[in-house]
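Team,

Forwarding the record for the chain on the shared tracking sheet. I've put the sequence and predicted structure together so nobody has to dig through attachments.
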Amino acid sequence: DKVNQGHLVDWLPASVMQQYKFPDLVSALLSVHRPDKDADVRRLNQCQSKPQQRLLFEELLAHQLSLLQARQIIRKNRAAKIVLDKKVHRDFVDQLPFQLTAAQESVIAEILADIDSEQPMLRLVQGDVGSGKTVVAAMAALAVVGHGLQVAIMAPTEILAEQHYNNFCQWMGADNCLLLTGKDKGKNREYKLEQIAGGDCLVIIGTHALFQEAVVFKDLALLVVDEQHRFGVHQRLALREKGVNAEGDRDGGSVPHQLIMTATPIPRSLAMTAYADLDYSVIDELPAGRKPVKTVVVSTARRQEVIQRIEKACEQGEQAYWVCTLVEESEFLQCQAAEVTAEQLTADLARVRIALVHGRMKAAEKQAVIDDFKNKKIDLLVATTVIEVGVDVPNASLMVIENAERLGLAQLHQLRGRVGRGAKQSACVLMYQPPLSEQGKQRLAILRETNDGFKVAEKDLEIRGPGEVLGTRQTGLMQMRIADIVRDEHWFDEVRKTAMIILEKHPQAVRPLVRRWLGKADRFVHV
């Protein structure tokens, strides 16, 4: 009825309608709900009819506009103009125990150019597991600290936050760095909050705890978010709000520069939709001397062989991980399963020093075990997927992942990235419970064939769809009604061009288009 009452306004520019011979909105909706009797069913199923294309184009456009608009709003604010002193830059690079890759140097140059401006940087840095993103962020932090301003670095887990803290203490000096996590309580927490608010500490590293109400920064000029896909789009936008410093609220909204780092390579189709509000850089080169991890796929029937292989490796002074996965079950059951596995392996491997780390342990306990593993006091670390992000032990060269068929490709690739960080040849054993479905075989074969995170990510996207790939918190953004970001990727460039035209020449169309596709349940009426 609403359609027939003419409540629907066509917001697509006439030039786009003519170029693609799109029908008007009312005709498109009627045709999609009541296709002609002689319509080609195959084309309808593949969303290739003109009315369907008209609607999916508009839906992609609405998503694009909502993110570009968010970007425009941020860009209207001012940020601190930061310049890195050339000598400080040179000295920092010279004291690193490794040489920067060309890819790292080029991304550092992009970041330094971004922050040398009063327009806030909004940049996503993608780098495959082990490509050296942290040192890239450190270079930006170094520039900010040189101006006496603050940097906040947010990590998704306490283990990773602690690792960043140790690295930054080495690079920037412990006096400049502060670690704030959920375990800081009482007087200790109050003292740290005072240090942050007073500007006594310039590099503040933490978990989600950094963005609680009580945390007030004195002069926050750079915000680094590590492993962004764990936070989701809405949290990303909320972080920007939080970053507006107290003085900035009064002098026209000074906001921090933002650098987002992810080791989950994002296929172009996702980068152009879910991350349209960000510029993005890719570190597409691993440090010299790294050997690709050899990946083998075996059935649990060969578990004893795998255990013998671990024994041999540990006798030769190597270290290994054994990852237990119980995805559908509760965290409690997952930890229980890991405990049982650790007991069984201890019985089988009498001469191997074995320890356990899982999500229900206190942060300090987890850290102590990981430190022992780093210091070679442990040969085999039995773990849940808690080690997926950020554990860096170069001597660990063997990983076994149980029930590998239960995890997504991106997560398996992340886990595999915990080995292959030293000069030794590393291996990853993907153990599965037979029988394995056709899709399961296909997925594990991809990991056997490639170490390239981008190829893995493309396949993951094809197999699981964007909502799952982006993580549950982000699915809200990407639940398309008619468009499909894999199938419809060929429209992206045109959609982006159209979005730019609308923002510039038809700004009155932005809100109604976004509301129609992303708004509340009455989205088709209020237009």
